[in-house]
Amino acid sequence: MLKVLLVEDQKLMRVGLKSLLENDIEIISEAQSGKEALDNFRMSRPDVVLMDIGLPDISGIEVTKRILEADKNAKVIILTSHLSEQDVMNALHAGACAYVMKDTSTDALRMIIKTIKDGAMWLDPQVVPILREKNCGVIPARQMSRAMFKEQHANLTAREYEVLKLVVDGKSNNEIAQELTISEHTAKAHVCNIIQKLVVDDRTQAAVKALKEGLV
Question: What pTM was estimated for this model as a whole?
Fold first, then answer.
């Protein structure tokens, strides 16, 4: 099983995550402070670290930096309720592989943990606009030309491409419908088609693939 170190100062959150992920992900160690996280990382050598930012002694971002300094191959996922520009930028510069909001679904979190273990990078859709605005280079600020898009992804229609960009921005079906002046039913149909054509399981994976392949 995939081994995870869970760093979270709230006991209820730790218990909940452990219960939700237990089927195919093993929480091999838990820490409720930064110092404890550093000690436990050295002892347990997990595949992935789930890291909260707001720890009582050392910031989770600082802990992430120290873990990466000790082991450049460590994989740290920031799991937080904080969405400030400064936290996002500091976390990524510290070496975090992913920045995930705590309102993420269990299935999505499970998928994120597995893809991070395999060497991917993940950014919560809510984070993407911050990085684009900063133009910091973490995500390429490029748009594919229509010709290049058709050549590489001819199976997606122009409308589906528009919907995909909104999915990456974290828009719901209702918000997509309002943005494009279409019915929610039509928006849902477009999202389903995109998921099928990109050969992924859900809209979260579609967003990951879109970012990974530079579609948006």
Answer: 0.65
